[in-house]
């Protein structure tokens, strides 16, 4: 694969040269004004994007409208600050942003900053006045929690009414939490300190609803005091970064501008070294959402925080929680991160609208947890191998380090020594990683041949081949995927599907991320005349696209499994197609390849699987739960009547607990670590605990059980 590395290196060098040339040309004008940072940055970005992006945009009125819509959405995502008259003023610029870029001016950015600054001051005075009076939670009224279903306030009076309901909702949530906490304390007996065992009553006085309401308003006021303090910290560089990123994101969701501070955060994430809870977060429409759980991290081991959760509040141990709704991502991350051994309590909103407080003890990521692991499953006299691959890992700076392809190869060899009759390769929640490892891993299951095609914006596609004719494992194979299987996972799954080498099972589709990005340091590309206004940050841009060997892209559509199973995440609007301005699906000329000689009988296997799923109580319960969650997710209005709200939350909690109940009710599979691994771990408690954490949740995994059944149908 050395030629692959050379190809990538040359391509990156060519693109860097393009950036350098573009930067020398961007400041050609007749006047002698001193270059302004915002002008230089935006021009440099657009020059580079026009020259090197996979699908460059025309800088015209259509481009302006896209930038306008995305920036407005991010400027006031909750629609609680700007009035409709403000939006009307800004809308005059929706077809002029392209002209501003050419002129080197920024009237739209300046006006939006001015208007937003004024409205923030207006609202800052407003919320203090509203919170000075008690709320009546017996009145029948509702609050719309989904900004996409609301409009900007028509005037100041409408804005005040919107904030009244918003603050009432925030207060009611906290009152409900206090009531739940008080009920728990009443129901929980306290241990007696006397010699004679007894049950103590309670050590805390019971608070009245009125006392709770007053306390809740104080807490809400403090939250917003902190929130507006953060808003006041927004400076010109922050506003420029938001504007620049809005421009970059109109090309595609994975093309981004990184301010210098954000680039440092990105680099830290790419190294795999974390100290904190180990969750990847993203800010979207004013909310901090969990996009991924780092395998092996404190969150991964604790198990309650999931991708798709929205973090609403953060508390340091027993301290008062701080609201992070509407907070800048970097500030929110700084509250969640912390030293190993310290506790953080997160109040999260689950995708079904229920709320939960999750306590996590911060830790460093246990790197071992990120590596491939295997086990055996004994079912009805048949022995099945199982491999979990959390990510396609590799260290490109150290050729002697571990890689996912080599590790999977070793796990397959160990499973062969165990005489397994089939193998499940689990790619659920695997967001991708090393392309080279995906190619090499596919080669473990087939003879030599093409695995994936990679194409730039112009020219012919490059075909990445497996050149090793050896087949590491040639028996029955199932690949498990879900909505969070992306990038390299999709490449491997697509290759196995095209070769008819195995059966792909899981969610209705994978994520649909079929693009390649590269990062360029803008400071390196800029000429010396701009040294006085550096640093500029970095630009991550999409330069290539993945294509299956059958010619179809993995972009947007993802991979459609051969056998689709009911899935707890199927009600979520997740995936590339749900993001802003994704690149579309297309196809190119197929590569030349020959399907696997002993291809599985997909139609027959699908029919048998459908019959089992239809008869399974666990899958029936899961399907019903998903349907109820879909209904709850679409019902975004909440009652501001406390009794009704608490009843709704209790029902939501019941529904959210059902998945765990489904798992607990499922038959237990006989799954165990490999004998060779047990001998290697010996009395090492860390390794023993790791093996236990690995196999425990799999024993009642109904999706894995069905994958085993599909393999047994082929034996």
Give a description of the structure.
With 715 residues, the protein is an alpha+beta fold. Among the domains are: 91 residues, Roll (Pdz3 Domain), CATH 2.30.42; 241 residues, 2-enoyl-CoA Hydratase, Chain A, domain 1. The protein is built from 22 helices and 24 strands. Strands 22-19-18-15-14-13-24 form a 7-stranded mixed sheet, with helices on both faces. Strands 6, 7, 8, 9, 10 and 11 form a 6-stranded antiparallel sheet that branches.
CATH second-level architecture of the domain at 368-514 and 553-599 and 668-714: Alpha-Beta Complex
Radius of gyration: 28 Å
* Number of DSSP E strands: 24
Which strand order do you get reading across the main beta sheet?
22-19-18-15-14-13-24
Low-confidence stretches: 1-13, 26-33, 191-202, 267-273
- Biggest beta sheet attributes: 7 strands, mixed
User: What percent strand?
Assistant: 15-25%
Structural class: alpha+beta
What is the molecular shape? Answer: globular
Amino-to-carboxy terminus distance: 35 Å
What share of residues is helical? 40-55%
- Helix segment count? 22
Q: For the residues shown, what is the average pLDDT?
A: 87
CATH homologous superfamily (4th level) name of the domain at 368-514 and 553-599 and 668-714? 2-enoyl-CoA Hydratase, Chain A, domain 1
Structure summarized in a few sentences:
This is Carboxy terminal-processing peptidase. The protein has 715 residues and is of the alpha+beta class.
């Amino acid at each position: 694969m050395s030629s692959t590395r050379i190809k990538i290196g040359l391509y990156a060098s060519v693109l860097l040269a393009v950036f350098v040339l573009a930067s020398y040309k961007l400041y050609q004008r007749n006047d002698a004004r001193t270059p302004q940072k915002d002008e230089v940055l935006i021009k440099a970005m657009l020059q580079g994007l026009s020259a090197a992006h996979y699908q460059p945009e025309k800088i015209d009125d259509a481009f302006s409208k896209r930038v306008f819509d995305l920036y407005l959405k991010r400027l006031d995502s909750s629609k609680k600050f700007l009035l409709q008259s403000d939006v009307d003023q800004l809308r005059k610029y929706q077809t002029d942003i392209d002209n501003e870029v050419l002129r080197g001016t920024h009237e739209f950015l300046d006006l939006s900053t001015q208007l937003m600054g004024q409205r923030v001051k207006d609202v800052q005075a407003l919320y203090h006045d509203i919170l000075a009076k008690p709320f009546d939670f017996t009145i029948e009224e509702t609050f719309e929690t989904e900004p996409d279903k609301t409009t900007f306030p028509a005037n100041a009076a409408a804005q005040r009414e919107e904030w009244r309901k918003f603050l009432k909702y925030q207060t009611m949530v906290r009152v409900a939490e206090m009531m739940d906490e008080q009920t728990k304390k009443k129901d929980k007996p306290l241990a007696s300190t006397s010699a004679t065992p007894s049950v103590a009553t309670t050590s805390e006085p019971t608070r009245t609803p009125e006392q709770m309401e007053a306390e809740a308003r104080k807490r809400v006021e403090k939250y917003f005091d902190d929130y507006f303090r953060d808003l006041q910290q927004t400076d010109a560089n922050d506003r420029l970064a938001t504007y620049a990123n809005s421009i970059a994101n109109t090309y595609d969701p994975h093309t981004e501008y990184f301010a210098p501070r954000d680039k440092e955060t990105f680099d830290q994430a790419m190294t795999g070294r974390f100290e904190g809870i180990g969750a990847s977060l993203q800010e979207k429409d004013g909310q901090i959402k969990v996009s991924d759980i780092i395998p092996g991290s404190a969150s991964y081991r604790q198990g309650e925080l999931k991708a798709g959760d929205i973090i609403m509040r953060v508390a340091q141990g027993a301290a008062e929680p701080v609201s992070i709704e509407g907070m800048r991502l970097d500030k929110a991350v700084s509250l969640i991160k912390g030293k190993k051994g310290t506790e953080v309590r997160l109040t999260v909103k689950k995708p079904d609208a229920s709320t939960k407080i999750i306590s996590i003890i911060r830790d460093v990521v246990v790197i071992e947890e990120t590596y491939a692991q295997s086990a055996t499953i004994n079912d009805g006299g048949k022995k099945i191998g199982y491999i979990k691959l959390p990510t396609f890992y590799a260290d490109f700076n150290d050729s002697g380090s571990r890689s996912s392809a080599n590790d999977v190869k070793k796990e397959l060899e160990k499973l062969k020594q165990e005489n397994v009759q089939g193998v499940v390769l689990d790619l659920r929640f695997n967001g991708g990683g090393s392309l080279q490892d995906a190619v090499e891993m596919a080669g473990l299951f087939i003879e030599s041949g093409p695995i994936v095609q990679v194409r730039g914006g112009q020219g012919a596609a490059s075909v990445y081949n497996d050149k090793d004719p050896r087949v590491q494992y040639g028996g029955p194979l199932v690949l498990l995927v879900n909505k969070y299987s992306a990038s390299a996972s999709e490449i491997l799954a697509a290759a196995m599907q095209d070769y008819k080498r195995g059966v792909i099972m899981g969610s209705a589709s994978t994520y649909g991320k079929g693009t390649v990005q590269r990062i360029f340091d803008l400071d390196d590309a800029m000429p010396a005349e701009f040294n006085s206004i550096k640093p500029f940050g970095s630009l991550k841009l999409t330069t290539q696209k993945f294509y299956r060997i059958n010619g179809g892209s993995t972009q947007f559509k993802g991979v459609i499994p051969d056998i689709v199973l009911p899935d707890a995440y199927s009600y979520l609007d997740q995936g590339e197609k749900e993001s802003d301005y994704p690149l579309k699906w297309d196809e190119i000329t197929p590569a030349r390849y020959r399907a696997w000689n002993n291809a599985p009988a997909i139609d027959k296997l699908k029919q048998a699987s459908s019959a089992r799923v239809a008869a399974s109580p666990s899958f029936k319960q899961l399907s019903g739960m998903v349907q109820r969650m879909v209904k709850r997710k679409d019902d975004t209005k909440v009652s501001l009547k406390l009794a009704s709200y608490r009843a709704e939350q209790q029902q939501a909690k019941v529904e959210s607990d059902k998945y765990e109940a489904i798992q607990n009710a499922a038959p237990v599979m006989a799954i165990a670590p490999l004998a060779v691994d047990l001998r290697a771990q010996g009395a090492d408690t860390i390794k023993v605990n790791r093996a236990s954490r690995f196999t425990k949740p799999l024993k009642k995994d109904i999706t894995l059980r069905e994958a085993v059944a599909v393999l047994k149908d082929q034996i």
